[in-house]
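Long-time lurker. I teach an intro course on protein structure, and each term I like to show students one example going from raw sequence to a predicted 3D structure in C-alpha cell notation. This year I'd like something fresh instead of my usual example. Would anyone be willing to generate the C-alpha cells for the chain below so I can use it in lecture? Attribution to the forum is fine with me.
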Amino acid sequence: MKPVSQMTPADVTSVRYVLMDIDDTLTIRGKLLAQSFAALWKLKEADLKVIPVTGRSAGWCDCIVRQWPVDGIIGENGALAFWEELPDAGMKTMFHPSAVKNDHPVLQQVRETALSEIPGLRVAKDQFTRLFDIALDFAEEDPPLPISDAEKVLQIACKLGAVGKISSIHVNVWMGDYDKLSMAERFLTQRFGWQGDLNEVVFVGDSPNDEPMFARFPLACAVANIRRYEGMIKHFPAFAAEQEGGKGFAEITQILLGTKKMSRFQN
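-- Reply from a regular --
Happy to contribute to a lecture. Here you go:
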C-alpha cells in the first residue's frame, strides 16, 4: 500500500463515485467523527456520488440514506441498496436477486452453534432491523473478543454451508451469492448508468469484508487500522491513510479533492 499522499492528478481525473465502509472507517470507537461527516459533505458538494457500502442493517440504511449527505447506501454486505429519488419520488430499494431471508434454517443453526461454542459471543444489538443476515458481535459491545473468535465463527458458518465475512465489529453470516462488490457494481450500473470504468470509483475501507472492493478498484484506499488484519487479507488496497478511522477518511478526502482540483488545472 502506498501512502494516500502519493495519489497523482492522473490517478483521480476520472473519479465520479466515492464509496466507503462505515464502522471504523468513518467512525472511531463507534462514534461518527465531526471531520469524517464533514468530509462526506465536501465530497457531495464537489458533485461526486457518495455511497456508503456497509455490513450494517436495513434499519441503519433507511436512516442513513434519509439523513446523511449520500446518494444511496448498500447494506448487509451487499444484500440491499436504498436511495432517495428527490424531490418527490421517495425511498427506493434494490435487493440482490440471490439474497435469502435470515430465517433460513442454516443461519439459525450457525447462530446457535457459534453462541454455544464461543463464550462471550453475542447477537448484534441491531439484529432486529436486519433482513438477510445474522450479525454476531465480537467487538462492538464490551467485552471485545479476540479476532481468533471471529475466525471460529467464520469456520462454523462455512462448515454449515453459509457465507461469512469478518468486519471490524461483527461476523456477518448469510445465504446467497453476493458481497459488497457485486451489489456495488449492480447499483452503480442500474442507478447511475456506470459503464464499468474502474478508474471512476474510489472505495475506502478498513477490514476483511472490504477485500473484494480492495481487489477490484485500482483507487481503493484504507484507513490506517487496516494493518490490524495483515494476516487475514490477501488483496490490500492501493493506498492507505496515515490516520485511523474517521480521521483517516478525512485525510483521504482532503487529498482526493485537492488532487482532483489539481487535475482540472492540468487538463
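Some talking points for your students: The mean pLDDT is 96. The CA atoms of residues 1 and 239 lie 5 Å apart.
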